Amino acid sequence: MQKKLRNLSMAALFAALIAALTMVHVVTLPNGYVHPGDLFVYLSGCLLPAPWAMAAAAIGGGLADLFGGYAVYAIPTVIVKACIALCFSAKKEKIFCPRNALALLPAAVLTMGGYFLADNVIYSWAAALANLPANLLQAAGSAALFVLLGFAMDKAGVKRRV
Known about the structure:
By secondary structure, the protein is mostly helical. It has a single domain, classed as Orthogonal Bundle (Arp2/3 complex 21 kDa subunit ARPC3). It is about 75% helix and about 5% strand. The protein has helices at about 1-20, 35-45, 50-65, 75-85, 100, 105-120, 125-155, 160, and strands at about 25-30, 30-35. It has a two-stranded antiparallel sheet. Strand 1 and strand 2 form a beta hairpin. Helix 6 (about 105-120) packs antiparallel against helix 7. The longest helix is centred in the C-terminal third of the chain and has 31 residues, at about 125-155. It is globular and about 45 Å long. The chain starts with a helix and ends with a helix.
């Protein structure tokens, strides 16, 4: 029971962080924005069991789209963010381990591919193609932040304490 409560509490915290930090527009683009929220999608996958991380990522990302004025993206975001969280593993002793470092590649592919498909359905093939560089920038920025924060959190022993 204590473990379930811990996982529920951590998932709720991650969902709130993902929603809040996704709505922080670092760079605003014509059909979206670059944000630090995906960093916490990655971290949720590293610190929570997969179903909890997927739920936190889906709920946080979906709520950010609903509250941030991008409701048309809410359903694709729920799917994409849940899949991204699944790429990472909480079963390792460190946050930034070889497996989670490699997970940055499928996370980028899912970000770019998922939103390419969404843009293609919502707008057009040309719009989807035009948004690919922004989605690549989003994935690259999140990966860089993950590397920096992952190393710092490992150095501080966060995973042992959680």
